[in-house]
Amino acid sequence: MDDKQTLVKCLVWDLDETLWRGTLVEDGNVRLADGITAVIEELDSRGVLQAVASKNDHDLAWTRLVELGVADYFVLPQIGWGRKSDSVRRIAERLNFAPGTIAFIDDQPAERAEVAFHLPEVRCYPADQALALPGLPEFSPRAVTVDSRRRRQLYQANFQRESERESFAGPDEEFLRTLGLELRVGRADDEELSRVEELTLRTSQMNATGVHYPDAVLRELCADPAHEVLVATLTDRFGPHGAIGVLLLETRPDHWHLKLLATSCRVVSFGVGTVVLNWLVDQAFRAGVHLVADFRATDRNRMMDIAYRFAGFTDERCECSAERPAEAGVQRLHLVPEPRALPDTMRLDAPAIGRPRVP
Ligand SMILES: [Zn+2]
């Protein structure tokens, strides 16, 4: 898939006559439709999240999913009597996913029409297509990594954190300090590079350039002494978040050029983008260079624009990068660095990059 917008990140299942044969309130003993378990497991292993939107008695339906041995595969189950479009919208909002990355499968044409009416970007499939879904390109991410196989657990741990956060009354930073966050920034190794490619495909929201760097290009740049390919990983007391950010930096004698900065939408609320930018500004100060960054506005990456401005980047022109103008449609942001303090919300483990500053 070349167009990252077309990949499905979450599939929302109807239950009666879709996930299982029969109607639960009429037949308490419903069984999964043939081949459905294999579809659920396959999509899960590819990192496609799965949720439920069903008009049913919540406790009865959830109990049946547990008995059938598939309850663990679903995040954010929406089981009740409300509109399915509301259920799908809630799922998208809680996951921080664009509606265009959500798919919905239901045997009832009227339910599919209701979802399509309110959420036209959501892709709707009839129940008889369930077994064919893993063969469709929109359910076939090009890169399947350790992180995609663990994606569901990562989200489930996140929901656990959020429910703790909701019950925590102090200011946000105080809460973040209770998480024991550890952010590691390191030069990408071979295994991480495949995760990086996946990240740049998936992070439409926090991708500052909207540019996708293929694996092969990043591998070449890794070997180029004038480029740094850095991967950020995050852990906290609930466990690892995996690879959550990538930076592609060209280190030139008088300025560093940040060509790509993308962070996972899962960790936006932890302020990771700001921490990484502050670290980079501090490193640039130590190296005695200016920083320039490319920004291409998309309909999804406004938050990254805010992160750059918040870190002190401006539109001012500077001699340092004058001879290399930005491509059409790309804003060239600039910053004259000064020392920055380490974050007090997380522990940061990051390498020294560039030349040491001459005293
Ligand atoms: Zn400059």
From TrEMBL:
Signal peptide: none annotated. InterPro entries: Acyl_CoA_acyltransferase, FkbH_domain, HAD-like_sf, HAD_sf, HAD_SF_ppase_IIIC. This is HAD-IIIC family phosphatase.
